[in-house]
């Protein structure tokens, strides 16, 4: 018995010694100064290679920063936006070292790096990196997340546990502009499956205003792919779209007709004339929907009957008490933009703009109105509304919006029965938050919208068959997030598709044509674990060294661990 106790005591002493030795060997990390090394990209490279260290709290003074690979000091090439570009020092091939950033005598945490042998055969096409989550406590802080510009596999880690494995494919070029063009051109890309099964991409080739709605663009704005999105060929006319396949075998597609000049219409007296106070400066005249001419009522859509191969235009009927519609300047557009979702009991959509007549007979800032159809889209009945109610503590521009409140809502009917919507507020007042809200009664009532990002435009949602919910949004850049723990208040840090540029780095929207992208994306599911994302890249460098707008597609595979 004494011998056993003696052995246990020895083991405890040994373990204590190991623990103490570990603490002594690690450099001091000052938590208050938050000098944090998040990721080395790539984390396997040869001596002399240029790599990036991404983190937080690096400052902007190169003379105050030192990077060490073990005991070897690295040459710093650039420091920008908490990304340090360094040259790997001369170290023996195969060596594994710890890398740390020292800022004014304060060390960051350590990240492991392996020196690749020059003659080593690279077996993996994609670099595999570990990303340890370190979110800013300020949820509206606009910060870069996981730099994912090229092929790589990211192991997403929280509290020492890997939650996701995200494989980012190589960006494929769909089209590159042959000259400098303004806003609206090579913008707003889309991706879909055609009726033949081909992948088809489209993009805008027109000015971004109501005068362009429902009209053909200038020049080529379509491309097709026959190899899953790896290569693309531009075409004068895109293939016949497949729309959304319904459970009765029909296909449906919502369209936007050409806006009608006000001088061609006989209109009632408007309920309100609203002047957008932001830099957008738009003027909205809002009318009682029930008093509008028939051509301004209902929904414009097309249907392909089961077994047919051609689209027939039709008008859907709206049953929506207190509904109002608007004129934009001197034009009257029929805008009904939203995501269609079919469940076992009907077809749902939550489009915008959602102007409604309030209790005092006036018009409040537009929200989102949700509709249900039980006859496959021929008649639409209002379910409920997502009323505009900004969080002024986190969204200081919220009270300034007197025209469009919530815009560009993403909508998904999740497999667990919950309806989820992500809402944009960003406008001419500058970068502003995105909100989330849910409904557990099929859109009749919604939770109070809650801020969860500092900025973002045109959010897009996609639930994969493996249960992962992906969300894309833009401005700054193009960002992907993934929901964690089936909780719409819990998302990963953003995966960055593009380096930020120009207006991305400003709090105001500024000249959005100088940013990395228009920020508009679309997601297309391709299997249980994967999807394609299409986006614009405004800073694409051609072989001749020119900067041109482009449209790109990437495959993303994400799995829960």
From TrEMBL:
Family matches, as PROSITE patterns: PROKAR_LIPOPROTEIN
Keyword Signal: yes
Annotated signal peptide: 1-21
Domain IPT/TIG, chain residue ranges per copy: 40-113
InterPro entries xrefs: Ig-like_fold, Ig_E-set, IPT_dom, Sialidase_sf
Entry coiled-coil feature ranges: none
Gene3D superfamilies xrefs: 2.120.10.10, Immunoglobulins
Protein name: IPT/TIG domain-containing protein
Species of origin: Sphingobacterium faecale
């Amino acid at each position: 018995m004494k011998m056993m106790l003696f052995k246990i005591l020895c083991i405890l002493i040994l373990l204590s010694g190991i623990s103490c030795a570990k603490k002594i060997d690690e450099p001091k990390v000052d938590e208050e100064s938050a000098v944090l090394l998040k990721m080395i990209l790539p984390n396997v490279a040869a001596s002399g290679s240029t790599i990036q260290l991404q983190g937080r709290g690096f400052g902007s003074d190169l003379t105050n920063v030192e990077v060490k690979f073990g005991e070897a000091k690295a040459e710093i090439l650039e420091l920008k936006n908490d990304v340090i570009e360094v040259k790997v020092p001369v170290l023996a091939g195969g060596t594994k070292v710890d890398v740390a950033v020292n800022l004014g005598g304060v060390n960051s945490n350590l990240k492991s790096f392996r020196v690749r042998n020059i003659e080593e055969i690279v077996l993996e096409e994609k670099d595999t990196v570990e990303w340890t989550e370190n979110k800013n406590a300020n949820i509206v802080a606009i910060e870069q997340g996981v730099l994912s510009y090229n092929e790589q596999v990211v192991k997403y880690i929280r509290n020492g546990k890997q939650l996701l494995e995200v494989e980012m494919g190589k960006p494929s070029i769909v089209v590159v502009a042959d000259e400098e063009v303004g806003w609206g051109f090579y913008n707003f890309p889309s991706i879909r499956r055609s009726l033949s099964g081909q992948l088809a991409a489209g993009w805008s080739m027109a000015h971004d205003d109501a005068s362009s709605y429902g009209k053909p663009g200038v020049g080529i704005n379509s491309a097709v792919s026959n190899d899953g999105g790896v290569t693309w060929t531009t075409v004068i006319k895109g293939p016949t779209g497949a729309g959304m396949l319904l459970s009765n075998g029909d296909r449906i597609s919502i369209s936007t007709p050409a806006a009608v000049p006000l001088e061609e219409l006989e209109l009632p007296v408007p309920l309100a004339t609203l002047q957008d106070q932001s830099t957008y400066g738009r003027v909205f005249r809002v009318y009682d929907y029930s008093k509008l001419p028939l051509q301004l009522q209902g929904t414009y859509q097309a249907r392909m009957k089961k077994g047919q191969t051609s689209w027939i235009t039709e008008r859907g009927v709206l049953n929506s008490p207190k509904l109002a519609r608007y004129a934009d300047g001197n034009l009257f557009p029929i805008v009904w933009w939203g995501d269609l979702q079919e469940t076992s009991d009907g077809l749902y959509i939550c489009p915008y703009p959602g102007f409604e007549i309030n209790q005092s007979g006036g018009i409040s800032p537009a929200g989102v109105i949700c509709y249900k159809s039980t006859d496959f889209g021929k008649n639409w009945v209002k379910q409920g509304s997502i009323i505009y109610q900004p969080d002024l503590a986190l969204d200081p521009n919220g009270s300034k919006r007197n025209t469009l409140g919530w815009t560009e809502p993403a909508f998904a009917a999740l497999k667990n029965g919950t309806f989820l919507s992500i809402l944009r507020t960003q406008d001419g007042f500058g970068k502003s938050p995105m909100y989330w809200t849910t409904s557990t009664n099929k859109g009749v009532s919604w939770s109070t919208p809650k801020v969860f990002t500092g900025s973002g435009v045109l959010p897009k949602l996609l639930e994969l068959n493996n249960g992962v919910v992906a969300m894309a949004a833009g401005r700054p850049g193009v960002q992907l997030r993934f929901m964690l723990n089936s909780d719409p208040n819990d998302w990963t840090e953003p995966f960055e598709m593009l380096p930020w540029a120009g207006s991305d780095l400003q709090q105001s929207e500024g000249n959005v044509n100088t940013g990395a992208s228009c920020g508009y994306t679309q997601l297309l599911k391709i299997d249980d674990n994967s999807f394609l994302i299409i986006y614009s890249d405004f800073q694409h460098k051609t072989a001749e060294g020119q900067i041109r707008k482009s449209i790109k597609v990437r495959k993303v595979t994400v799995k829960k661990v």
